[in-house]
Design goal:
Elements (H helix, E strand, L loop, with lengths): L12 H28 L18 H17 L8 H14 L12 H19 L1
Helix pairs in contact: 1-2, 1-4, 2-3, 2-4
């Protein structure tokens, strides 16, 4: 699904930045909700006996959803270069989804991260259950 916005007048740089910030916030919300659904259906759990099964297809997507949700909820979603957990997560996102690293936030374009992550989590859930 794609959303296209058409404006009758040219947008100022401040308008574009505000819309991009809003879009990033919506993408963060999608990750938080995805991880919540995984927990609701027992795909993710704090139970040590119910860890991610790395033999299943889509396991990397489930792990990245879990780790990214943690960064969004516990650390405000900001990328802190030089922090080990942040650098590992950024590297995993860049490697898994083929996106460019960013300086301040974790990259979450809908078509290159959100959709593939969601599809991978669904594939994992189907294989696991």
């Amino acid at each position: 699904m794609a959303v296209t916005l058409q404006f009758s007048a040219s947008l100022r740089a401040a308008d574009i930045q505000r819309l991009n910030n809003l879009g990033h916030w919506l993408n963060e919300t999608a990750i938080v909700r995805l991880e919540a659904v995984l927990r609701e259906y027992g795909i993710l759990s704090n139970n040590p006996n119910r860890r991610i099964d790395w033999r299943m297809p889509g396991a990397v997507h489930v792990d990245l959803a879990r780790r990214l949700r943690h960064m969004i909820m516990k650390e405000g979603g900001r990328y802190k270069r030089g922090t080990a957990d942040h650098d590992r997560l950024m590297g995993a996102i860049v490697q898994t989804y083929g996106v460019e690293p960013t300086a301040e936030t974790f990259p979450m374009p809908i078509d290159r991260v959100i959709v593939p992550m969601t599809k991978g989590c669904r594939e994992y859930a189907i294989a696991r259950n």
